[in-house]
Structure formats: C-alpha cells, structure tokens
Amino acid sequence: MSDKKAHLDPHAPPSRPRPLPATGSFVVDTGQRPSRIGMVTALDDHGVLYLRPPGGGTEWNPEPEDLRQPTEAEWDLIRTLTSPVRPSGP
Predict the structure, then answer these.
(1) Is residue 90 part of a domain?
(2) Among 20, 30, 27, CA closest to 78
(3) Where do the record's region annotations for Disordered lie (predicted)?
(4) Whole-angstrom distance between the N-terminal and C-terminal Cα of the chain?
C-alpha cells in the first residue's frame, strides 16, 4: 500500500450527513465573511438551499456544511429585524 493513501478505519462508525434545515428556519452561514444570518426560503430537489436576510434582501446559496444554528444574541437580532414596526402618532 502506498504511503500517500489514507488509512481508513474499518471499525469507525459511518459518518452521517447533517440534516438540512427546514424552510422557514433561521441559520447562520459561516462561509460568508462576516457570517450572515438567513432564513431558509427554499430547498430544491438537489439539496440546494436558498437563504434571505431577516427583514428582506437578496437571496444567496450557502454551502450546507457552512450552516449552524443561531446563538442567543443572533436570535435577539433576528427578532428585532423581523418584528413589525408600530406606527407612531395619535
């Protein structure tokens, strides 16, 4: 066997792909610099995700392995950006 070939452990548990987030859920795309928060707007038949910033904006396609759940501070920002604005005045 060549030294350049990777040694695979036949007893190692098989790796499972992470489940894709559901449409309507919020995630953080760490593949962007800086990281971006987005709501999953669509998931096509090939596993391609589409995200849109909270409060609106242009969609983008993240790499699924770059996604993580929002932190509590990020949830605070999501709630602020998606809350309706109340009209002021009489």
Answers:
(1) no
(2) 27
(3) 1-26
(4) 81
